[in-house]
From TrEMBL:
Signal peptide: none annotated. Keywords: Coiled coil. This is Recombinase family protein. Residues 439-466 form a coiled coil. Gene3D superfamilies: Putative Large Serine Recombinase, Chain B, Domain 2, Resolvase, N-terminal catalytic domain. It comes from the Bacteria. GO terms for molecular function: DNA binding; DNA strand exchange activity. Residues 6-161 form the Resolvase/invertase-type recombinase catalytic domain. Residues 169-313 form the Recombinase domain. InterPro entries: DNA_bind_recomb_sf (IPR038109), DNA_bind_recombinase_dom (IPR011109), Resolv_N (IPR006119), Resolvase-like_N_sf (IPR036162), SSR_resolvase (IPR050639). SUPFAM superfamilies: Resolvase-like. Transmembrane segments: none annotated.
């Protein structure tokens, strides 16, 4: 029996809520939940864990706090989840129902929605009752209606040239006297000016990146993270610590540095969807002289022929592609095609700084594959303990099951998008031609994911009957004919200057890092 009862408090406030609805604020949600826990759980030994998503929409589950909460649920490290109301957990009635009606009961997790008077321990088998389901549908419809209102209001702001992003783009900062206006941020603007001036004087993007790195100038992502530390947006760029030629070219192509406002270039295909589509040119707001320029029109136009010069096409071939990393800096190595349909890998960061440990030489895909095959065949004779190997196979099985669940969620999400499109068409809010195109795209995605799911389920069935020893034996028998098996065994390959490699196996519990 567990020593203590773990209660997770989940609090959420969307960016649209802002400070307008004080009753919905994080502080008030916390106070309400804490009072409830003291009243209902005061007599039992318990520990509370608080998870917060501040500034995140409830129309999808892609939120940092929510992800942590669901991991806790799946790993059985929480006994009870308490929220202010259903809408704080999710505004999507399908996702809400899936967790409240199915997953949480399966995991034996108690779910409490205070303001809705819902406690799963008192509603076993009846979470799908009319009142709960109706509230979830109402929350979903409210989100759709709110989304349309927000889009309409934003369109007005776009047409007026007003900036509504929480932060300004690199080179600018928010005007303290007008949140919808941006002004020049001198330190970053000076860097932007240098980029254009160096490019105009014939300095290539790679050379520009190298100079900036040698001078220790922060990349745009690093700079923004320092300027706006509370926004988690920049966390995903944590590894982007060096300037690259693509970063430089991206800034040199940005026409906004001439003082031009460009807004609303993309839009979501449906409420809660992660997919975006390009707006038509007529819907993209473009306003001249909207803010102070960093570079002149003449300078901008002068560097465009240089920036838009041809680039070497990338190869889609390569057995090892996506698995190779530089042993010096740890970044993925880039691939390019050579004669005889072979592929070579090189570290794209080797040219961006004079002071690094990057691998300076390239290595062939076929050469790497041969080295790995030889290593595996040698290691076959000293394969690890069978019991530990079986654990590794079980872990692989878990990963496949998790991937299958993600595919199911994707299929369900696409089906929801189709439902949303049908509802919008019925309301006369959607063009029939666009509707047909989107439905076709979603149907194709559903079909493709269902095929992938079927294949994955077959693989799961096969893996259940497979031991690690079997995997190695199969590899030995067929590696020469089916090198795709390499990808089943190898997680990452680190390449060093002398073509020494270090392999991280997918079966990490039983295989140490092998160097050769």
């Amino acid at each position: 029996m567990k020593d203590e009862y773990v209660i997770a408090k989940y609090l959420r406030l969307s960016s649209e809520d802002g400070d307008k609805a004080e009753s919905e604020s994080i502080t008030n949600q916390r106070r309400l939940i804490d009072n409830y826990i003291r009243k209902m759980f005061g007599d039992i030994k318990h520990r509370t864990v608080e998870l917060i998503d501040d500034g995140y929409s409830g129309t999808n589950m892609d939120r940092p706090g929510m992800k942590k909460l669901l991991i806790m649920a799946e790993t059985h490290t929480v006994d009870c989840i308490v929220v202010k109301d259903f809408s704080r957990f999710a505004r999507d009635y399908i996702e809400m129902g899936r967790y409240v009606e199915q997953r949480f009961p399966e995991l034996q997790i108690r779910f409490i929605s205070i303001n809705d008077g819902y406690d799963s321990i008192e509603h076993i088998g009846s979470a799908g009752s009319i009142d709960v389901a109706l509230k979830n549908i109402i929350y979903t419809m409210y989100s759709m209606d709110l989304s349309e209102k927000i889009k309409s209001s934003r369109k007005v702001l776009y047409r007026q040239g007003k900036n509504i992003a929480p932060y300004a783009f690199y080179g600018y900062k928010k005007d303290p006297d007008d949140k919808h206006h941006i002004i020049i941020d001198e330190p970053a603007a000076n860097v932007v000016k240098r980029l254009f001036e160096m490019s105009a004087h014939g300095c290539g993007a790679t050379e520009i990146a190298r100079r900036l790195n040698n001078e220790g100038i922060l990349t745009p992502a690093q700079y923004k993270k320092r300027q706006y530390p509370k926004y988690g947006t920049w966390d995903r760029f944590e590894g982007y610590t060096k300037w690259t030629s693509s970063m430089v070219r991206g800034l040199l192509r940005d026409e906004r540095y001439t003082g031009k406002y460009i807004g609303a270039r993309n839009e979501r295909v449906a409420v809660g969807s992660r997919k975006h589509r390009r707006r038509s040119e007529d819907d993209i707001a473009v306003i001249e002289h909207a803010h102070e320029p960093i570079v002149s029109d003449e300078l901008y136009k002068a560097v465009q022929p240089i920036v838009h010069g041809g680039t070497r096409p990338r190869s889609d071939k390569g057995i090892m592609r996506g698995l190779i990393r530089c042993g010096g800096c740890g970044h993925s190595m880039a691939a390019y095609g050579v004669k005889n349909d072979n592929v070579k890998y090189y570290c794209p960061y080797k040219s961006y700084s004079e002071h690094n440990q990057c691998c300076k030489t390239s290595i062939c895909d076929s050469e790497l594959a041969t080295m790995i095959i030889d290593i595996v065949q040698r290691e076959l004779e000293k394969a690890a303990d069978p019991e530990k190997a079986d654990k590794a196979v079980k872990r692989e099985l878990y990963e496949k099951i998790t991937a299958a669940e993600r595919l199911r969620c994707s299929i369900e999400s696409n089906k929801k998008e189709k439902l949303s499109l049908y509802m919008r068409l019925a309301k006369g809010e959607y063009d029939e031609n666009d509707f047909s195109e989107q439905i076709k795209e979603l149907s194709s995605s559903i079909k493709e994911n269902e095929m992938r799911l079927n294949a994955l389920e077959a693989s799961i069935k096969e893996t259940k009957q497979l031991s690690f020893k079997d995997m190695l034996l199969r590899f030995k028998e067929s590696a020469e004919d089916d090198r795709g098996l390499i990808r089943k065994l190898v997680n990452t390959v680190y390449v060093y200057e002398d073509k020494r490699i270090k392999i991280v196996w997918n079966f990490g519990d039983i295989n140490h890092l092998i160097e050769t």
